[in-house]
Design goal:
With 577 residues, the protein is of the alpha/beta class. It has 18 helices and 28 strands. Strand 13 (220-224), helix 6 (228-240) and strand 14 (244-247) form a beta-alpha-beta unit. The longest helix is centred in the C-terminal third of the chain and has 17 residues, at 377-393.
Length: 577
């Protein structure tokens, strides 16, 4: 079969196939005896399609499934021993069989990438989690993905797009998303607002009239220890907007375990002299909730903040030193990297860290300085090899620092030399609270701390929250991506503005997935591992070893040794032939 025939969806569909089923927690429960399980290729129902997996990226999220088994929150306690799953959520697919009810809607040869974060009838049924994923040559796709709560979770791919770069659009979308999610610019529509006064805020002439910015109207407002003047203004505003308002007991008398069980959408702290009040109130933020600190003075001490919720739940901290409380929603820029600014990628030499560095270099409006720090000297050395020329061509200074080699004092001095006034953006790519705290201490005025690493909910870090009011710094974090983020990422890739293939470190066939996942677990590779499920006989192969094993493929790598569409085509032609 020729490569063109393959691309068109040609080829005989086998009756059975190897699949990496997960029967429980631990690598010993991935497949049977370290090998994939032979299963029947899926029968296609009237509202389903059979999709061929052309390429699948391996992700540390897969390791989390193996670590947790049925306890993984996206598996909802599934009985894996009797009802195993097939992992793999970074997938490039081609339709090879269409159910009778979908004739004319889907065609053999149609190509897609899968938006893994899928909801169907209100339930999360993520691809590669509850739905069978990409670590098998074929998968079945039905209404959950074709007609989900957000529409179709399959994003069309152009014919000329490579399989690897299409599959890697999914993890790349998570990186792109980190700089796209804009915090709300007003109160949440029909949300719950909680306004809390503190002794330090007594007597300040707070302006609450523009509280809702004339854009959104909450459903309920709670007032706790608010001065009579501002409280009266708020009640008048609520009456005019037909909004329910309620005075609560004093803060110290509230049962915070039962008060606002679903959390508040917007919390305002008037004054900054009560750290305990701010910490306890922050713990009552709902998902996507915003805490605004309104104060012209600093908090007496750093505050303990659940940075895991910043990452996973999108809780957000902001503030203003002005008495107009609505200014907290309009102070400063968004989370995109500052154009011409100084960026620090903390943990920038790991697989995801290198993707952030690459995106910063390749974006149209790039920073002028990028510092990447990592304690792994070997990984750190690959950054200038991979991206040094691209950075220089764009006039970007790429600086690599190893804190383990420099020592605490030397590392601090190096950072201060690069950014004496602080960094405009600090992106934390290591799930360690101490590093979140460290990064926050180097923020410039108006700087953004992006907690990208997946620190668990309940992970506390001590941060100078005064800075959100006095210096307009912001703390943000994202987890996963949306359909729109995936579309945006694919658009950047197909438009030549992003090169996902640069992040590929190793390739392998379907039987190599177990070894590849072990490599992900053990941080063996500096980039992504891509599995080609159609090829059972392709061993796990780092790109630097291709010349010895597949010289005709290695000849098509980029001058820097990066994976390319041409190398991928040569790989397919080798095995298809």
């Amino acid at each position: 079969m020729t490569f063109e025939q393959y691309k068109a969806g040609g080829g005989q569909i086998p009756q059975t196939m190897p699949a990496w089923q997960v029967f429980g927690s631990g690598f010993e429960n991935l497949g049977k005896d370290g090998r994939p399980v032979d299963i029947d290729v899926y029968e296609v129902g009237p509202d389903q399609v059979l999709a061929r997996i052309d390429a699948a990226g391996l992700c540390f999220s897969d390791i989390k499934i193996l670590n947790l088994g049925r306890e993984h929150p996206r598996l909802f306690g599934r009985d894996l021993e009797n009802d195993p799953i097939v992992m793999g959520h970074e997938a490039a697919i081609t339709i090879v069989k269409v159910g009778e009810n979908l004739q004319g809607k889907c065609e053999i040869g149609d190509r897609f990438v899968v938006q893994a974060e899928a909801y169907y009838k209100g339930k999360n049924l993520a691809f590669g989690y509850m739905l069978p994923g990409a670590l098998q040559p074929y998968t079945i796709i039905g209404p959950e993905l074709l007609d989900g709560d957000d529409g179709c979770y399959l994003i069309p791919v152009k014919d000329e797009t490579g399989y690897s770069e299409a599959a890697l659009s999914e993890p790349w979308a998570c990186v792109v998303c980190a700089y796209r999610v804009q915090p709300r610019s007003a109160l949440k529509q029909s949300g719950v607002v909680w306004i809390i006064g503190t002794p330090g805020g007594r007597g300040r002439p707070y302006s609450v009239g523009p509280l809702a910015n004339g854009i959104t109207i909450p459903a309920k407002v709670y007032l706790t220890d608010v001065d009579p003047g501002p409280a009266g203004d708020i009640k008048t505003l609520c009456r005019e907007g037909n909004v329910a308002v309620e005075d609560t007991a004093p803060f110290g008398e509230l049962d915070l375990e039962t008060f606002l069980p679903e959390g508040a959408d917007d919390i305002f702290i008037l004054g900054a002299d009560s750290p305990e009040t701010i910490e306890k109130a922050g713990a009552r933020l709902g998902k996507g909730g915003i805490l605004s600190l309104i104060s012209e003075q600093g908090v007496p001490r750093p505050l303990s903040i659940d940075v895991g919720r910043v990452h996973y739940d999108g809780t957000f901290y902001q503030g203003t030193a002005e008495t107009d409380v609505s200014r907290a929603y309009r102070a400063g820029r968004g989370p995109e990297l500052k154009v011409g600014g100084k960026t620090w990628m903390l943990g920038g030499a790991g697989p995801m860290g290198q993707m952030h560095v690459q995106l910063a270099i390749e974006r149209k409006d790039a920073p002028s300085v990028i510092v990447a720090s990592d304690i792994d000297a070997e990984r750190l050395a690959t950054l200038p090899q991979r991206f040094g020329a691209a950075a220089a061509a764009r006039g970007i200074e790429l600086i690599c620092l190893n804190p383990a080699e420099l020592g605490n004092e030397g590392f601090d001095q190096a950072l201060r030399r690069v950014a004496p006034d602080g960094f405009d953006d600090v992106v934390v790519l290591v799930p360690v609270p101490a590093l979140v705290e460290q990064g926050s201490r180097y923020l410039a005025d108006g700087g953004w701390l992006n907690i990208f690493a997946g620190v668990a909910r309940g992970t506390m870090a001590t941060l100078e929250l005064s800075d959100v009011a006095l210096r307009n710094v912001r703390y943000t974090g994202t987890s996963g991506s949306s359909i729109d983020d995936l579309r945006k990422t694919l658009h950047l890739t197909e438009g030549g503005e992003l090169s996902p293939n640069r992040s590929v470190a190793a390739i392998g066939g379907i039987h190599a997935a177990h070894e590849g996942l072990e490599g992900v677990r053990d941080a063996k590779f500096t980039g992504k591992v891509v599995i080609y499920p159609q090829f059972p006989d392709l061993p796990l192969t780092p790109l630097e070893d291709l010349a010895d094993k597949l010289p005709e493929v290695a000849a098509k790598l980029s001058p820097e040794g990066a994976w390319t569409k041409e190398a991928e085509q040569a790989l397919f032609e080798h095995f298809l032939g």
